[in-house]
Design goal:
The complex is a heterodimer. Chain A has helices at about 10-30, 40-65, 70-75, 75-100, 105-140, 145-165, 205-215, 225-230, 235-245, 275-285, 290-295, and strands at about 175-180, 185, 190-195, 195-200, 215-220, 250-255, 265-270. Chain A is an alpha+beta fold. Chain A has 2 domains: about 5-165, no CATH class; about 170-295. Chain A is elongated. The model of chain A is unreliable at about 295-299 (pLDDT under 50). Chain B is about 25% helix and about 30% strand. Chain B has one helix at about 35-45; strands at about 10-15, 25-30, 50-55, 60-64. A 4-stranded mixed β-sheet of chain B has the order 2-1-4-3, covered by helices on one side. Chain B starts with 8 loop residues before the first strand and ends with a strand. The chains are: A alpha+beta, B alpha+beta. The interface between A and B is small, with 11 and 12 residues.
């Protein structure tokens, strides 16, 4: 491809298609991430904009190579730096929110969320790159855009879905079962969820409030590896955070492990008292990436 | 390694002064159980601390 040929209509069309597929992919992945993401409109705008830029970079990479414009490809390195900044930005934002939160997310959870946002920009870039490159390859067989574009678009979305599934994490649903357990005070001040000691409460009024409005559940890991995961401090913080964030927190939220069998007890006094929703929230808490590395259930 | 922060006792509220020996924290003597809880509650709120009850009936207020 010689200089000036970038203005050819089919090249522009392929680049535009790649950008569009990448942008739609980013939007789709952002919509699937509501639970982990602070749902601010400005946050959405930031990630859609960076997703658009990632799609544009992925789309122009192959035409730039065809045009022997190797310098343009070095911009991909610059893009990676930018996406690392996105991870840092996401971390800083979530860290700043920790101070206002009754039950903090914890470092491990924040790290996982930030990595996910960085990784999704790479997914967008790769899917856009696959759209444009496949369009050029198909064009060597046929010149009909009505055939080239649908094939390239479908391939781009397939790449997105495959990469999203590859990076998709497990949730606690995969490793635990949950049972509701009664709350009771023993020895006057010690609060138990079932047979697991959770905390000490000194005041009668607080005890009454906990017994009246509190909910206790016990999470049972399905195996030994899962027991290790559930014992991770960051994982427990993530559980407490999600419960208190989604149901509101009237008073305490606390977790405590049974050392004998690895069960994890949770007591919470939520604003919305709904045991079925608490179970659903806990089941959907993501398995932190830091845990997956050392205790992957498939390993 | 998981951090294991220790918390200081900010105040003690007891019904029996003999149960608290050489306390470095301020110790309050209450007349009855109701007064003990009320004092502990007020101290807990004022000091932004946590209120815990011991098995011997002594209430302690610790750092949050």
């Amino acid at each position: 491809m010689d200089k000036g040929h970038l203005l050819e209509s089919h090249v522009l069309l392929f680049i535009f298609t790649g950008i569009l597929v990448g942008f739609i992919s980013r939007w789709w992945m952002l919509r699937g991430d509501v639970r982990q993401y602070p749902t601010f409109p400005n946050g959405y705008l930031i990630h859609l904009t960076t997703g658009f830029i990632a799609a544009a970079m992925g789309s122009v990479a192959y035409p730039a190579l065809l045009g022997k414009n190797y310098v343009a490809v070095t911009f991909l390195a610059l893009a990676i730096q930018q996406f690392r900044d996105i991870r840092k930005m996401e971390k800083d934002t979530l860290h700043s929110l920790e101070r206002d939160s009754y039950s903090p997310r914890g470092e491990s959870y924040i790290d996982g969320i930030a990595k996910t946002f960085e990784a999704r920009n790479y997914i967008v870039m790769i899917s856009s790159l696959s759209v444009t490159s496949s369009a050029f390859i198909i064009r060597s067989f046929t010149k009909k855009n009505l055939i080239i574009i649908p094939f390239a678009v479908i391939l781009g979305f397939i790449v997105t879905v495959l990469l999203k599934n590859y990076t998709k994490g497990y949730t606690l649903r995969d490793i635990i079962t949950i049972i509701e357990a009664p709350l009771e005070f023993r020895d006057g001040n010690n609060l138990y969820v079932g047979d697991i000691y959770v905390m000490n409460i000194g005041l009668s009024a607080t005890k009454e409030r906990i017994l009246k409005n509190g909910i206790g559940v016990i999470m049972k890991p399905v195996g030994e590896n899962e027991m290790v995961i559930l014992n991770h401090s960051g994982q427990r913080k993530a559980i407490a955070h999600e419960c208190s964030r989604l149901l509101g927190l009237e008073r305490y939220v606390e977790t405590r492990r049974n050392f004998d069998n690895g069960d994890l007890a949770l007591v919470i006094v939520p604003i919305v008292k709904d045991i079925s929703r608490i179970k659903e929230i806990i089941y959907n808490v993501p398995l932190l990436e830091i845990n997956k590395k050392s205790n992957n259930k498939n390993s | 390694m998981k951090e294991s922060p220790t918390r200081s006792i900010l105040a003690i509220v007891t019904l029996d002064e003999k149960l608290v020996v050489h306390s470095s924290a301020p110790t309050f003597l209450a007349l009855d159980k109701k007064a003990q809880e009320k004092i502990a509650s007020e101290l807990g709120r004022t000091l932004s601390g946590n209120v815990y009850g011991l098995v011997n009936g002594v209430i302690i207020i610790t750092q949050e």
